[in-house]
Amino acid sequence: MHRRSFLTVAGALTLTDCGEAPKPAALPIAAAVPPPTAIIDAHHHFWMYTKKDYGWISDKMPAIQRDFLPVHLADTLKESGVNGAVSVQARQNLAETRFLLKHAADNEFLRGVVGWVPLIEPDVAKKIEAFAGQSKLKGMRHVLHDERDDDYMLRPDFNRGIKELKPFKLRYDILIFEKHLPQTIEFVDQHPDQTFIVDHIAKPKIKAHRIEPWKANLIELAKRPNVYCKLSGMVTEADWEKWTPADLAPYIDTVLAAFGPQRIMYGSDWPVCLLASPYKRWFDTVTAAISKLSESERARILGGTAIEAYNL
């Protein structure tokens, strides 16, 4: 097993074996660095809990079997110095999109919404157009990893729906398990002008300490410049009770090397993260992991990338 380390090359990060000469890295995407105070949580959820609406929340998850609303998140963010957030859908219906947009309209700290529309339906453009006046609607998402068909994202009707997003300047969040990365590469290649954002670093098998083939596939996906990645959702892929920062380090290092700070954004996956970690512990884990980077690189991950990718 070789020891790995980071080297900064022309402002970008590359992963190399210790003692070897650094390998060339792609030049970073030029973008303005936000003020240090612009810290954005690019991934959280709200819900008013019922078993019917949130059947995936099992009885083994009592910590999240309750309501989670803006009043609860606001205090949580302040504790870590986070001053903005992006709300992401947790139900697959149009009522969910309206629910999130209403909270965003009522709360200034909620900077954007990633909603849901029925992308496979022929009239999806009309469904999107119904939200056209909502400036905080920034993207859409479908819970791909729960579909029985692992190739769901390659369906012609789904891809026809994806093509309707760009005219409305909407991004698409990709929610998958690591086993879906090969299909995701094929999917993304059909839409070179669409902005994509990978949620939860594509959910590798952290608990099992397996890094391949996730690592190779993620590095391949990252070669597409229209793809961003959220540093989020990792603690619930690890051992909920026993995870340590060392368990997460190889995965964080891979994401940093593959995407560079210019295409990585911080996200909490609150309140789901509470199954394995208090909010502040996860935030502190991320800030410690990126402490080796320059101030401008840290600013990108903690806010600048989300502001750019979602046009917040």
Structure notes:
The protein is built from 9 helices and 10 strands. The chain has 312 residues and is α/β, with parallel strands linked by helices. It has one domain: TIM Barrel. Helix 1 runs parallel beside helix 8, helix 5 packs parallel to helix 6 and helix 6 runs parallel beside helix 7. It starts with a strand and ends with a helix.
One letter per element, helices H and strands E, the order comes to EEEHEHEHEHEHEHEHEHH
User: CATH superfamily assignment?
Assistant: Metal-dependent hydrolases
Rg? 19 Å
Assembly of the depicted chains:
single chain
Number of separate structural domains: 1
Q: Kindly state the mean pLDDT as a whole number?
A: 90
Secondary-structure-based class equals alpha/beta
Extract low-pLDDT stretches: 1-35
Could you give a quick summary of the protein structure above?
This protein has 312 residues and is of the alpha/beta class. The protein contains 9 helices and 10 strands. Helix 1 runs parallel beside helix 8 and helix 5 runs parallel beside helix 6.
